[in-house]
Specification:
Elements (H helix, E strand, L loop, with lengths): L13 H18 L3 H21 L3 H10 L4 H8 L6
Helix pairs in contact: 1-2, 1-3, 2-3
C-alpha cells in the first residue's frame, strides 16, 4: 500500500530489513570471496526493490528471491565442471 506524503523506504518494517540483512549475510557466506556473484546479487536486489515499490509485494519475498536466485550456481559449476564466466 502506498502512503501519501511519505517516501516508503526500500524495506517495509524494521523487521523486514533485519530479515533481508540476515539473508544477505548468509548469501555472502555461501559465495565466500566471489565478489562478482555477491555484487551481482546485490545489484539484482536493487532492481527488484525499484520494481517492488511501485508495484507492491512482500519486501521479504522479493528480497529473498533477488538475493538467492543464483545461490546454487557454484555447486552446479563444480558438479558439471562448467562456468558461466565468459
Amino acid at each position: 500500500m502506498k502512503r501519501r506524503g511519505r517516501k516508503e523506504s526500500s524495506f517495509g518494517a524494521n523487521n523486514d530489513k533485519a530479515i533481508i540483512d540476515s539473508i544477505k549475510a548468509q548469501m555472502k557466506n555461501v559465495f565466500g570471496d566471489d565478489r562478482r556473484r555477491i555484487n551481482h546479487a546485490l545489484s539484482v536486489l536493487e532492481y527488484a526493490e525499484t520494481i517492488r515499490l511501485p508495484e507492491g509485494g512482500s519486501a521479504i519475498v522479493v528480497g529473498a528471491a533477488a538475493l538467492l536466485h543464483d545461490i546454487g550456481i557454484q555447486e552446479t559449476e563444480r558438479k558439471h565442471r562448467c562456468s558461466s564466466r565468459h
